[in-house]
Amino acid sequence: MTQERSLGAQIEAAAAALRRGELVLMPTETVYGLAADAADPRAVARIFEAKGRPRFNPLIAHVPDLALAETLARFSPLARELAARFWPGPLTLVLPVREPDMVCDLARAGLDTVAVRVPAHPVALSLLRAFAGPVVAPSANRSGRPSPTTLPAALEETGQACAAALEGGPCQVGLESTVVALLDGQARLLRPGAITREALAQVVDLAEAGADDAHRSPGRLTRHYAPESPVRLEADAPADGEAYLAFGPCGLESGLVWNLSARGDLGEAAANLFAFLRQADAARPRAIAVAPIPTHGLGEAINDRLRRAAGYVG
Length: 314
Ligand code: TXA
Ligand code: MG
Description:
Layout: H1 2-19, E1 23-26, E2 33-37, H2 41-51, E3 60-62, H3 66-72, H4 77-86, E4 91-96, E5 113-117, H5 122-131, E6 135-136, H6 151-158, E7 162-165, E8 178-182, E9 187-191, H7 197-201, H8 213-216, E10 231-232, E11 243-246, E12 257-259, H9 266-282, E13 288-290, H10 299-309
Helix pairs in contact: 1-5
Bound molecules: threonylcarbamoyladenylate (TXA) and magnesium ion.
Threonylcarbamoyladenylate (TXA) binds next to strand 4, strand 5 and strand 9.
């Protein structure tokens, strides 16, 4: 009881901080977010500054329910179907903006579209209900670094810029939301993520990714998710002085070895990925070698993050 009351009090204090234009560390089911009032350009500017994020990279608006989402974005029947199927949950929809002032120009990087999602985390939902307006929240890492999946990791990244930080435990999913654009009657996958291509395909036909999709999801242009150490992919074993992220049964027990999932489970690997990258990096190895990861299901998003961490994708 006491704990519940104190969590309630913390959430009220965090909502008050958002109303004052301050930043809050918010847990979600995917990764920790650095949250601000989406309508307040000065608060949003603080996010870009704290992360060192390029201004051309727009933010995701988080809302407690579809009703609020519909006030800020234009939903097609297909958008409503996707929301009904996957919200609350790790799906972000990029839609035509409806009420531009609710998610300020800076947060949208000047685009006439807006990215929106309803996170599936009780603490996030309580904060969003208490605030009663859209909250933008990029992953709480400094720009280009691995996303934080625990509160201590989030505090280390951007804690100094925050007026409040909410504990939500380790993120259950561990990978960012899947970003889907619904702009010209077609659904396009802009960022693979926690909702797999296979799961989306049960609801919607995904158009082949177009050459201009990178421009529609500007954040995809940058090197990203990268630790300090170089990352070497598709490694069957570590070389001398390397840390190793294994996947599946692996004879290596000693040395700098972290197994993303000894039983070869992609969900478990996704949940461990960023935390293990951080732990391996902290050992200051010559490089972090990573085992081959299957490409189906969540493997698509895991491989996407790893390629970017290794700097293979522009
Ligand atoms: O799981 C998540 O989505 C986490 C948690 C905190 O919710 N947030 C997150 O935010 O990953 P961020 O800022 O790290 O990534 C947002 C992505 C970027 O790739 C950005 O370019 C894209 O969404 N995005 C945002 N608004 C967009 C828009 N209007 N059009 C196209 N892409 C957009
Ligand atoms: Mg991010």
